[in-house]
Amino acid sequence: MTQRVFSGMQPTSDSLHLGNFLGALTQWVALQDTHHAIYSVVDLHALTVSPDRDVLVRRTRATAAQYLAAGVDPDRSILFVQSHVPQHTELTWILSTFTGMGEASRMTQFKDKSTKVGESGTNVGLFTYPILQAADILLYDTNVVPVGEDQRQHLELSRDLAQRLNSRLGEGTAVVPEVHIVKEVAKIFDLQDPTAKMSKSSSSPNGVIDILDDPKAITKRIKSAVTDTDTVIRFDREHKPGVSNLLTIYSALTGRPVDDIVADYEGKMYGHLKVDLADVVVAALTPVREAALEWIESPERLDSVLAQGAEKASAIAQATLERIYERVGLLPLKHR
Ligand code: TYM
To answer: How far apart are CA 237 and CA 208, in angstroms?
Structure first.
């Protein structure tokens, strides 16, 4: 049987960034050729950062638009908005009763995020967030989950929960998902602080390249990327994190091995690399940006794609939920 892929992104910014694009979206698009893929805009997860209502609406559509623009194909894959499929929250409750306080408390993303906002700013949703993520994955009997490195620990929890369901409720209750992380692009770094991952919540917007940035902004950000005082262009993650990050991006977008790129720039200066890389990034992102803007300007067309996706996703999700409800011992509703 064709293996199933599931993944999602939070609609927590107007534009996805180059880390989301290379670490996840590009892999999603490729996996459609070999797998049955299901991709979601996980708006319920985004509620944990208490977004303004109109902002959330806009970002949910913009995120779906960028999936489509990057090549997620609704004729081959399922594309939907998480809150349109209520089974996600229903399974979350069941899974939360299988999750230990200790293991939930160990999640480093929760620790980082809650430390940032302090106890008074931390909602319970942020704590149970990885359980909702596990529900997303297990609902579709997912075999493969393409993500960036920062999701590894959450995926471990999803796997542990699937295994626990199988041992407590019987084999075949859940599929244990495999994480799909492409090492080279698993962590794209911030251009201004190349030891930190590129992130929507970066302290400096200049460190982030957004898919929806215009070419001028992209070029400016790459040209001002932090490198080092040395002059040699070579890949050395530890000692030359800035240059190594630029080489990684260059290689990922052109499909050329890093060594070949390094050979091309022998004896040249950082400025040369940056000018060429800016062209490479602009060439790769411009068609995506233009297609995304078209989708954003046609919300009705977009909503109709999402509605069809929700219908297909619900059918799969409902079957899984009924199987798990039955095994847990929840009394089925008999229609008179
Ligand atoms: P999110 O929305 O933070 O990020 C979306 C995807 O982009 C990847 N990513 C990166 N990859 C490489 N370099 C970076 N700098 C970088 N920054 C982000 C992330 O690893 C992710 O794959 N919890 C998830 C969303 C989620 C999910 C799911 C994912 C909810 N349910 C089920 C998979 C399956 C998140 O916050 O991703």
So the answer is: 19
Instruction: Confirm or reject: Cβ of 237 under 6 Å from ligand 1.
Output: no
Cα 136 to middle of ligand 1, angstroms = 13
The encoded tokens of residue 144 equal 């493969």
Q: At what angle do helices 299-328 and 152-169 cross, to 10 degrees?
A: 40
Please give the Cα distance from 212 to 21 (Å, whole number): 11
For ligand 1, say whether the CB of 193 is within 6 Å of any of its atoms: no
Q: What is the DSSP string of 84-140?
A: G-THHHHHHHHHHTTS-HHHHHT-HHHHHHHHHH-GGG--HHHHHHHHHHHHHHHTT
| Minimal-distance CA residue to ligand 1 atom 25 | 9
Amino acid identity of 143? N
**For position 333, what pLDDT does the model report?**
86
Which residues carry out catalysis?
113, 197, 200
Measured in Å, residue 191 CA sits from the centre of ligand 1 at: 19
148: left (phi over 0), alpha (psi -120 to 50) or beta: beta
> Which residue lies with its CA nearest to atom 22 of ligand 1?
147
Question: For 281-308, b where at least 16 C-beta lie within 10 A, e where not — what string?
Answer: bbebbeebbebbeebbeeeeebeebbee
CA dist., res. 157 & res. 293, Å (int): 36
- pLDDT tens readout for residues 41-64: 999 999 999 999 999 999 999 999
Mean pLDDT of 229-236: 95
Percent of the chain whose pLDDT exceeds 90 = 94
Residue 191 near residue 197, CB atoms below 8 Å: no
Tokens of 12: 């927590």
User: Phi/psi class of residue 298: alpha, beta or left (left: φ > 0; alpha: ψ in -120 to 50)?
Assistant: beta
* Pairwise CA distance, residues 42 & 10, whole Å: 5
- Give pLDDT tens digits for 93-109: 999 999 999 999 999 99
